[in-house]
Specification:
With 374 residues, the protein is of the alpha+beta class. Helices cover 23% and strands 30% of the residues. It has a four-stranded antiparallel sheet, with no helix packed on it. Strands 10-7-14-13 form a four-stranded antiparallel sheet, covered by helices on one side. A hairpin with a 2-residue loop joins β1 and β2. The chain is extended and about 90 Å long. The N and C termini lie far apart (64 Å).
Length: 374
């Protein structure tokens, strides 16, 4: 601890022979690291995750603030655990999200080859999320099942023209992962994942990476699917996109999903604040974004000024026909105006936009839209 009563803490992780270190949070006793680390778990190594918190000292040896150990054997696989781990000797508490995922064994319950459709399960889920259960466990909004079947035509990340791809599925703070399929551009994962849904407006994000044993995984592509856009039981290819989801990249994912939820709980959750995403990436300052926003404001101000000049010209009778028309329109509106006309006018605008979109949408279909499997 520093002389001012604060510290510059960082945390070290150790699992087997792998070691990682977080960034340093300066001058605080309540650090928020908001970092993500991927460690490999092997059958022939220790399953104890060792944590140690240190105080960074410039020009001197760092001081240890506390230690803790987590036995991974006690944690259920394919589930994201929200853990509050106490440090030894009451030195504090470490809060972390921990998931053991990416299992490749044939005995895994998430294997599609072993997955059998249970009609009783579906019936129980429909009953669980029916209107009769709207007042039970209000935070349990729905159930999502994702079948990650395979991918095709992925980007080659290795020198041999192949990749070692795996998928990461994220739903807010729940993060699950497939196994790695080595040396292929057309991996067949065959995995089934389930999520407890807390907000029907959440977005399922699936990212494909290339595993690198000597460094960080390499990004291959990503998709984002709003839960309300899911069509139950539809097996479909989804085209991969870049990190910002703006342009298409090479490759596609074959998925099949099912989303069951309670409409009343979903509506109640809608009017409440969204669940905080712990790993939300902070947006960096960009000159291009600032310039674009400045141009938008400038254009808006210009339109307001032009509108003001037009109204003023009507009062100045610069154009007699235009001023006379404006005067007559003013009299008609004032004479016939009723308060109910305001929402009616807004509804007409909504209807007009809907009609336009319905007519032109089939002719303006984006070429990057995901194509259903034939």
């Amino acid at each position: 601890m520093d002389d001012n009563g604060l510290s510059d803490p960082y945390i070290k992780f150790k699992l087997g022979s792998e070691k990682y270190k977080s960034k340093v949070e300066n001058k605080t006793l309540n650090p928020h690291w908001m970092e993500q680390f991927d460690l490999h778990l092997y059958d022939d190594q220790s399953n104890i995750l060792e944590l140690s918190v240190w105080d960074k000292d410039v020009g001197a040896k760092d001081d240890i603030m506390g230690r803790a150990a987590i036995d991974l054997n006690e944690l259920k696989k394919e589930v994201t655990h929200n853990i509050e781990q106490e440090l030894e000797d009451g030195a504090g508490i470490i809060c972390l999200l921990l998931t053991i995922s990416g299992t490749s064994g044939g005995e895994a319950v998430s294997d599609l080859s072993n997955h059998k459709v249970d009609p009783n399960l579906r019936r129980d889920l429909i009953e669980r999320y029916s209107l009769r259960g709207s007042l039970k466990d209000i935070k349990d909004v729905g159930w999502l099942q994702v079948k990650v079947i395979r991918a095709q035509n992925l980007t080659a990340a290795d020198l041999g023209g192949k990749s070692d791809p795996f998928c990461v599925l994220e739903l807010v703070n729940t993060r699950l992962q497939t196994q790695t399929i080595y040396k292929t551009l057309n991996p067949d994962w065959g995995k089934v994942f389930t999520f407890n849904v807390k907000d029907i407006h959440s977005v399922l994000e699936i990212t494909v990476y290339d595993e690198d044993k000597h460094g960080s995984p390499e990004f291959l592509g990503k998709i984002a699917i709003p839960l309300l856009n899911i069509k139950n039981g539809e097996r479909k290819f989804y085209s991969l996109k870049d990190k910002k989801l703006r342009s298409r990249v090479k490759g596609a994912l074959l998925l099949e999903m099912e989303f069951i939820f309670n409409h009343i709980k979903g509506a109640i959750r809608t009017v409440n604040p969204r669940e905080t995403k712990y790993m939300e990436v902070d947006q960096k300052f960009k000159i291009s974004v600032l310039q674009r926003n400045v141009n938008r404001v400038t254009k808006l101000v210009g339109n307001i000024i032009d509108t003001g000049k037009f109204i003023n010209s009507c009062f100045q009778w610069e154009s007699k026909p235009r001023s006379l028309t404006a005067f007559i329109a003013y009299l008609v509106i004032v004479w016939n105006f009723e308060l109910y006309m305001v929402p009616m006018a807004i509804l007409l605008i909504f209807f007009w936009k809907y009609l336009i979109n319905s007519i032109i949408a089939p002719f303006t279909k984006n070429v990057e839209e995901d194509v259903s499997i034939v």
